[in-house]
Amino acid sequence: MAQSEFLTVGQLAARCGVRTSALRFYESKGLIESMRTGGNQRRYPRSTIRLVAVIRAAQSVGLSLDEIQDAMSVIPEGRTPTKKDWSRISSRWRARLDERIQFLERLRDDLDQCIGCGCLSLQSCNLLNRGDKAAERGAGPRHLIEGKPS
User: Fold this and answer.
1) Residue 123 has what pLDDT?
2) Are 81 and 10 part of one and the same domain?
3) Which of 66-75's residues contact partners 24+ apart within 8 Å by CB, and which partners?
């Protein structure tokens, strides 16, 4: 692929490893922008490659498209994001990512133990969740979501 200033939807999709339909979806949500040729074909600035990479990375760690869109709203329309823009986006996600990291660490470390889901199938469930006491704290794997009770 030539290092041109603008990419077709197919070139961008190939470079980013996504389907063209994903790019059109991101565009419909206001996450990326394209220009149109005289023949009404989409053309994306090369900087869109990084936007798509960040969108995909954020989705892969559990951020919703609404959270991604909210954070990317700091980028002025039609301008290539600067280092300062990326720092602002990163700071908006920091607390959410820290929560996600803590959850993933609990999942990694505690999946072979009682997670407070109510199945009562592991020997440790009888100690940590006798009679499914975790259900009083809500649905789902309470020990994973909130941590084990003290």
Assistant:
1) 79
2) yes
3) 67/93, 67/96, 68/31, 69/29, 69/30, 69/31, 72/31
